[in-house]
Amino acid sequence: MDRNFMTRRGFALLGLSLLTTGCSTSWSAGYPSMSSYRVASQYRRRQVAYDGNEAPGTIIVNTSERYLYLVEGPGQAMRYGVAVGEEGLTFKGEATVGRKAEWPSWTPTADMIRRKPRLAQYAGGVEGGPHNPLGAAALYLYRGNQDTMYRLHGTNEPWSIGRAVSNGCVRLTNEDIVDLYSRAPVGTRVKVI
Q1: How far apart are CA 31 and CA 42, in angstroms?
Q2: Which of 174, 150, 178 is nearest to 161 (CA)?
C-alpha cells in the first residue's frame, strides 16, 4: 500500500483532531495533547477559601500540603496541586518571579548530576517541548537579581502531582502552569513554606 495515500478514515481522524485542538492554547501547537493523565481530584485546580493575609497576586506554596495558592482577593485563592522537592531538596522562603518562559529548555545543575548520575546524559541541555522536564512553561524564582535555580514549572510526569519527587522545584500539570503563567507576571511575590 502507498504510504502517502490518505484514506477516508485517516482524513476524518485528521479533521477531527484539528477541530478538537482549535480551542487549545497556542503553546501546544505542533505538540501532542499536553496531558491525558487525570490528576487525583483533590489536586485539581479550583478556587478555594483562603484565610492568609498575603496581598492579591501573591503565590504561596505549601510544600507539606502539596498545594500552590495564587491569592486572588480577600478570603479567596486559586489552588493548584503540585509536586515538590524530595526531602532536603525543597526551596523554602521568599522569592519573586524574575523571568518566565514558554516551552523552556532545561539543563541539570552540577548538584543534580552529582545526586543522580543518570542525568549526566542531559548535561548539554534539553530543548523545550513535550519531552522536556520543565513542561509547557516555567516561572524562574529570583532573590534580588540572583536566580535561585528553583522553578515553578510544568511536568511531563503528571502522576507526580501530590508527591515529593523533584530535585527541589515545584511541578504543576502543564495545563495548570499555563494557567498560572497567564496570571502571574514577572515580579510576582512567591512564598514557599
Answers
A1: 28
A2: 174
Q: Does residue 57 come out as left (phi exceeding 0), alpha (psi in the -120 to 50 range) or beta?
A: left
Tens-digit pLDDT profile for residues 104-140: 988 888 887 888 888 787 787 778 888 888 899 999 9
For residue 35, give Cα distances in angstroms to 29, 94, 187. Answer: 14, 30, 29
By annotation, the residues acting in catalysis are 153, 169
Please tell me the pTM assigned to this model: 0.78
Among residues 133, 72, 144, the alpha carbon closest in space to that of 104 is found at 133
Answer positive or negative: Cα dihedral of 164, 169, 174, 178.
positive
Task: Write the DSSP string, 124-177.
Answer: T-B-SSTTSTTTTEEEEEEETTEEEEEEEE--S-GGGTTSEEESS-EE--HHHH
What secondary structure letter does DSSP report for 111? Answer: H
* Dist CA 81 CA 158 (whole Å): 10
Q: Are 174 and 133 in contact (CB under 8 A)?
A: no
